[in-house]
Amino acid sequence: MLRRVAFRLSDDWHEAEDLVQRTLLALHRHWDGLDRRDRAEAYARQIMRRLLISDRRSLRWSREVLSGAPPDAA
């Protein structure tokens, strides 16, 4: 179920699998603090959306590291 939701959000199966793994890790870390465990799936979907948004924001603001000398201005 979570894998299909992740795929709908990301449109990439590989990214969806990574997103599900990271979501389950985050859910595990916060499991003791969950008020209603019957709503764990909804909580997991919310975590998934927030992780994806965070990933997309970080990609937009990432910088490239260039190696080597810059080309000569002729």
Mean pLDDT: 85
Which structural category do the helix and sheet elements fall into? mainly alpha
Shape: elongated
Helical content band: 55-70%
**Annotation, overall tally of beta strands:** 0
Main β sheet profile: none
Beta-strand percentage?
Answer: under 5%
Rg (C-alpha, Å): 18 Å
**Number of helical regions:** 3
Order of helices and strands: HHH
Number of separate domains: 1
Q: Which regions contain 5 or more consecutive residues with pLDDT less than 50?
A: none
Distance between the termini: 57 Å
Describe this structure in words.
There is one protein chain. By secondary structure, this protein is mainly α. It has one domain. 64% of the residues lie in helices and 0% in strands. The protein contains three helices and no strands. The longest helix is centred in the last third of the chain and has 21 residues. The chain starts with a helix and ends in a 14-residue tail after the last helix.
